[in-house]
Design a protein that fits this description.
Helix content is about 55%, strand content about 10%. The chain is mainly alpha-helical.
Length: about 160
């Protein structure tokens, strides 16, 4: 079970983790996390009844995600999609600009990387699934994910047909 209790206290930590850190800042980040952890656990005690808390074996306060953490989560999710497509004989390439766009749109300090999963599903997986159902993609094709400049930058899917 997870909760966002105390998430607002971790936003400063998240902002700190997303900036370029000097080695001396890691000590400050550790101190900030410990202070936040105490405050978050106090908030938890105020929000949850003792009867419920006594049924929970362990309470963990996660560190705020850094940009590096969020990028790794994005890579894992893209690799999962890639491996599912490989089973259908289809490749996947994501341009660096598209990856940057997905990072910008899929992460926020309050919700962490949770919105990234939905973003990938809405922007990539649903469109690729539609293409598969419409028989647009065939064995050997490679789906390429790029950004397309419009009023609002968005994701564009193109595909290269297999050489015959």
């Amino acid at each position: 079970m997870t909760s966002n209790i105390g998430a607002e206290k971790l936003q400063k930590e998240a902002g700190f983790g997303f900036s370029a850190l000097k080695s001396s800042d890691f000590d400050n980040l550790d101190e900030l996390h410990e202070a936040n952890k105490t405050k978050v656990l106090d908030d938890l005690k105020k929000m949850m009844r003792p009867e419920l808390l006594n049924r929970i074996d362990k309470t963990i306060v996660f560190r705020a995600l850094t940009r590096k953490n969020a990028l790794k989560i994005l890579d894992i999710q893209l690799e999962d999609l890639r491996s599912r497509l490989v089973k259908k004989g289809i490749g996947l390439e994501v341009s660096p600009k598209a990856k940057q766009y997905l990072m910008e749109q899929g992460y926020d300090a309050h919700n962490g990387a949770r919105p990234m999963r939905r973003l990938l599903q809405e922007t990539l997986e649903d469109a690729i699934a539609g293409g598969l159902l419409e028989d647009n993609y065939h064995t050997g094709d490679v789906v390429t994910v790029n950004t397309k400049k419009t009023k609002e930058r968005e994701i564009e899917l193109t595909y290269a047909a297999a050489l015959e």
